[in-house]
Amino acid sequence: MARSQTEKILTALAGEYLTAAKLCLMGYIAVPTFKNFPGVDILAYNSATGRQITLQVKTISEDGSFVFGRYPLPKDKLDDKRLTVWVHILDKSKSKADFFIATFGEVARLAQRGHETWHKEKPATRKLEGGLVNIIGSEDLKEFKDKWGLLEAL
User: Which of 5, 54, 59, 125 is placed for a possible disulfide with 87 were both Cys, Cβ 3.0 to 4.6 Å?
Assistant: First the structure.
């Protein structure tokens, strides 16, 4: 069933606030931008280290998926070096979520490879060119789980 625009906005905001809370617990002052700055969802500053970072946050709820667009993905998505926090909300009632930290491009390339594998399984019935490229949930992103140390490499 299609989610309403309000549900999509609430899911996105929940992911941004959960990420900001996590950053605060790590010593950052983290402020969501409320969609006022393209490509930046959170501004963060660590007064102990002087480190300033900007992050984009992508969020899905329990049964959602991250959609990247149609195959093949454009080169600018595959080469995107912006560090992004991918949030998978596991249980809305308990604010339970998994966090995955990677560049947008790393995850886009992973999604595109997954789409190619999916097509190879049943090429007669699955569309490769023009098919939606997506990732469903935590299992696909497991190599990036809780890689918060990447923030220090910026």
Answer: 59
Tokens of 35: 């969609």
CB contact set of 144 (below 8 Å; sequence gap of 6+): 86, 100, 101, 102, 106, 107
Residue labelled with tokens 């696909």:
140
Give the DSSP letter of residue 70.
E
> Does residue 2 carry a pLDDT above 70?
no
Model pTM? 0.90
Residue whose C-alpha is closest to residue 12's, from 64, 54, 53: 64
Longest dimension (CA), the chain: 57
CB 99 within 8 A of CB 144: no
Please say if the pLDDT value at position 136 is more than 90: no
pLDDT for res 38: 81
Strand blocks (E) in 49-82: 51-60, 66-70
Q: Say which CATH topology domain 5-153 has.
A: Trna Endonuclease; Chain: A, domain 1 (3.40.1350)
